[in-house]
């Protein structure tokens, strides 16, 4: 069996990521499965299955190198420790039993000798293996086929036995990847200068403390003080009464003892991973790890999708970046990481930069699923259905490669999520107007486990000649429970058209077509439509806005009778409380939760400052309010994107996720627009303070 | 269509919250909506209108050369599919991977740095936003900086703590190393034959944590004078003094201008 390398975590180009090389020593050919399982257990399921590394796995590549040793197990050395196992200076070698292994490591089991040591050629053998298999390594993990406990780290290397735990490895990666200091305490007093590492300090002045931003004003500084300087162990919370609910690893203060002394140096929390191994990183260490590796993750907040992925009535958010996704769960007022995935989900779907995501309850289980489509990054188009994997994540249960019976996917296919069968499961309308000689519309019904084409329209639908610039909207305009199709074309004909096509579950029929005008509205190419039940009668109505084709902007409210539209109200230039401009952008929501769908409105281009507003429907009229320039701490800007949602779990859709490259915010619109949460570069809820 | 107030022309002011605020005239040359009759335009000089019936469609040949989709199968087909194979044929796999980097490995003994290997690796590391704590390095060609970074964990060897927590062994056993080895990275295009002799690698230990400010174009030691202290330096790479193995590694990593295929005359 020859030596080999397998990349077991693929986050991206090695030049842009932190690369971890894993080598094995003392694993003969017959031991390779044992080695592979150990790597999975301690590194993938252990270190990268928990807290920080789980979150940021997209910053790392992992390469498992399978080196075949002649002998099974590693060389052994025994020391005479002279009864002082913590002092290696007087030790002598009793015996050395060498084995022929790939890297020549020797296990001693002696703490003072780093538990293990290299043989005469180990450095060269390791370097040769790295140069050959993982030349761009940043961190190295060497696993020895040795059951005894031990591990030796430093210089970005960790050499461990099979007895090592993932938690200790995660601690060691804190050194190797984060430059973090140990927070262990040993008797002694420090009297030197300020240490350089972020997580230890000699400074006990709250005003200048380097992690002062994370210390709550009510927390005493110091928080833990050593009553017997130079002796004892790490101080815990002993300056006053520890508040109820105080977290020993997430509440920040100033605790005496750390970096090998018990006095004179302080650590941020009682028990961080850099002290106790098992706890997660404290806010200071976590922030340092995040800051150092954020650019390696390649993440931003540009592609965010709201959906209730666990069916608790509150919308969560899925964030897509390149070949990874993350799902953050809402508890009503904040978001927390619940799923982090790089490269692929079981099934398998491999994420790519141009994946398009469509969120909806496609199987009627009360939770949202994800349809993902990619027509750019592969030699063929792919459509996948991702569902809850039962563990807060996603798995693929259906995938269509290039085509499905009756529909051949193409680059410009456009999907619309709609339950056109009325069966309680969201289906898909799909339109392609440009990649074929004629336009096509397909009706893909969801079975809960996949999609079937129930009807295809080639070039025309009843009463409608399809053209390449047709724009489609969905909504049940007749209240029969089956979502219908609306189609508008403003530029391919001499006059604009809008058609209302009724779904009977398996086909469409023209309910009403408007040629050039609605009642009280002259249609123009620049009309923008928002399907919404603004009067709460169970039938979807239509907001229509035109900001650029007339001398002033217009907004119409066209109510559906089930068979046609009637003008409920038209606003010419000004909706009460909102001066309409050509750059207004709208999103549908139910801000007041009264079942009458309203509009969010945003303008970042036509005024001296940006405006975010709400247009609340009374059924036949609107009343508006807005915030100028800032919503709380959110500085509105032209790059902002908005996702109407219900992260609070209240009635209606009164919330917004707002996001741009580096910022993510949670805005609630009732009773008035206010920012509930703001995150910078990553989503994390600090107990006190924040990362900017 | 009557409006509550006569329109006014406003460029960039603040929005009024008054329910009866005057409309903003976006373009005075355009008309106001009447809501009465359709506004038509000529398409290619003709008036084109949609027919009421589902008329035959005028097929056009798109740029992709595709024509018509295959007919829908006559019998309904259950399209539940989970192909056994993963997606294949990622276009990114065949695309130009872009510029490369050189991973330069140095050994540092008593303040003297020497090259012990060099490797070309694909991709370019994102430029650091700040100078992290650790061993900082700055690589320049003449007066021009070509790379900067930090190696977080150098110069120390640590044993894992004793699992039984025996006296004195509850933490790490620390051993300071006399010789350290570090990987540095620089763009391969800067690692050219002509640049080898001009490459200057400066390594700095840190007295304290540098402020979290963006790294400017100024030399590191000028930007962080209170935090950095020179630790080692390498001035130029002289192939002649390298061992044959290292010489070969460095030579193979040297940047060469790609030769483009030229069309025959």
Question: What can you tell me about this protein's structure?
Answer:
The complex is a heterodimer of chains A (692) and B (265). Chain A is 9% helix and 38% strand. Chain A is mostly beta strands. In chain A, the strands form 16 sheets. In chain A, strands 1-3-2-8-10-9 form a 6-stranded mixed beta sheet, with helices on both faces. In chain A, strands 5-4-6-7 form a 4-stranded mixed beta sheet, with no helix packed on it. The longest helix of chain A has 15 residues, at 283-297. In chain B, 8% of the residues lie in helices and 26% in strands. In chain B, the strands form 3 sheets. Chain B has a 4-stranded antiparallel beta sheet, with no helix packed on it. A 3-stranded antiparallel beta sheet of chain B has the order 2-1-7. Chain B has 265 residues and is mostly beta strands. Classes of the chains: A mainly beta (692), B mainly beta (265). Chains A and B meet through β9, α4, α6, β18 and β22 of A and β1, β2, β5 and β7 of B. β9 (151-154) of chain A pairs antiparallel with β5 of chain B, so a sheet runs across the interface.
